[in-house]
Every structure is written in C-alpha cells, then in structure tokens.
Amino acid sequence: MNKPTLFFILIIDIIIIIGMSYVVYNRYKQYNAPKIVKTEKNIVVPETVQVPVKQTRNILFQYRSSKAQDVSIIGDFNDWTPQPLTKDQKNLWKIVLSLEPGEYQYNFLVNGKVITDPNNRKKTVNNLRGFKSSVLSVKPLDDLSGHSESKEESNVQKK
Questions:
Q1: Which of 3, 31, 82, 111 has CA 20 to 30 A from 43's CA?
Q2: Which structural domain, as residue segments, surrounds residue 82?
Q3: Of the candidates 130, 129, 135, the residue with the CA atom closest to the CA atom of residue 150
Q4: Same domain, 152 and 108
Q5: Are residues 76 and 102 in the same domain?
Q6: 86-87 β-sheet, strand order
Q7: What is the 8-class DSSP label of residue 34?
Q8: Cβ partners under 8 Å of residue 24, min gap 6
C-alpha cells in the first residue's frame, strides 16, 4: 500500500473512533443523569432515587431439651458463629433471627455437639463442613399468598 491510502485509512479510523466515543458518552449521560422534576412553583429539583428496601422476616428457632445445658444456633445467616438460645421454664430454648429471603443451612449446637433440627425434615448431606445441616427457605412477604409463614418456616417456628 502506498502512503496516501494508509493516510486515508487512518483518517477514517479516527472519525469512527470519535463517532463511537460520542455515542457512548451520550448514552452514559442519558442513563446516569439525575432526573429533573419541576415543582408547582417552577423550581427545578433533581428527582430522588428510591432504593428498594430488603425485606426481612423474623424467624423463631426453637429446641426442646431437658438435658441441654447450652444451646446455640449456627448457620449461613451468622457465618457459622454460635448464637446462644435462651431457655424458658419448660426446657424450651428459643431465638428469633431477622433473615432476608433466601435458603439457609443451619444446625443447633447442643452442649458442644452439632445436631440437625429434629423438627425440620429437609436435610442436606454435602455441606462441605463434614456434617448434615437442616435447610430453611425464607420466602419474601409478597410471595406467601396470604399465609404468615412458608412450609419450611412452619417446621422451625412451631417446634
């Protein structure tokens, strides 16, 4: 190729790069620019952005034992760090945790021994920790179709 042809190709490439940069910049500006809202008094105010609020559910975990001296709960929701349950006069150990919708694996830690939830039939075998875990599925509030708790939550809450 001769020099005029290479020069012509170079100019065309520069024009294409500038054109594409202009298109990308305008799209960026369009999507990231704050929305402007005019009020009744013609004051221009940027529109506020509403951040979706995460729905949390209060889940009651219970474990009944007259022989237990110390009961904690461990699971995905607390990074497997023991959280102690409180014991009432009827040997019922309880804790209420606020959980976001999702699926969680958990166990009770009773007198230092890891056990599954005896009232929850849904268990996992391979949890990469060397023991079986109970599984809890927390549904969003709007997915419950008028029920106050899902089937899995029912097992945990009504022990």
A1: 31
A2: 57-157
A3: 135
A4: yes
A5: yes
A6: 57-64, 92-99, 86-87
A7: P
A8: none
Kindly report the CATH number assigned to the domain that includes residue 99.
Answer: 2.60.40.10
Nearest to 75 by CA among 95, 48, 54, 89: 95
Q: Are residues 36 and 75 located together in one domain of the fold? A: no
Q: How far apart are CA 75 and CA 110, in angstroms?
A: 14
Structure tokens at 113: 């021994």
Residues 126-136 have a mean pLDDT of 83
| Percentage of the chain exceeding pLDDT 90 | 46
DSSP 88-151: -TTSEEEEEEEE-SEEEEEEEEETTEEE--TT---EES--SSSS-EEEEEEPPGGGSTT-SS-H
Residues 46/73, Cβ–Cβ less than 8 Å: no
What pLDDT, in 10s, does the model give residues 49-101?
Answer: 666 667 889 999 999 999 999 999 999 999 999 999 999 999 999 999 999 99
Domain annotation covers residue 82: yes
Higher pLDDT, 82 or 26: 82
Is the same domain home to 93 and 26? Answer: no
Is residue 51 one of the residues assigned to a domain? no
**Number of domain units in the chain:** 2
Q: What whole-number distance in Å separates Cα of residue 124 and Cα of residue 137?
A: 13
C-alpha–C-alpha distance, residues 112 and 110, integer Å: 5
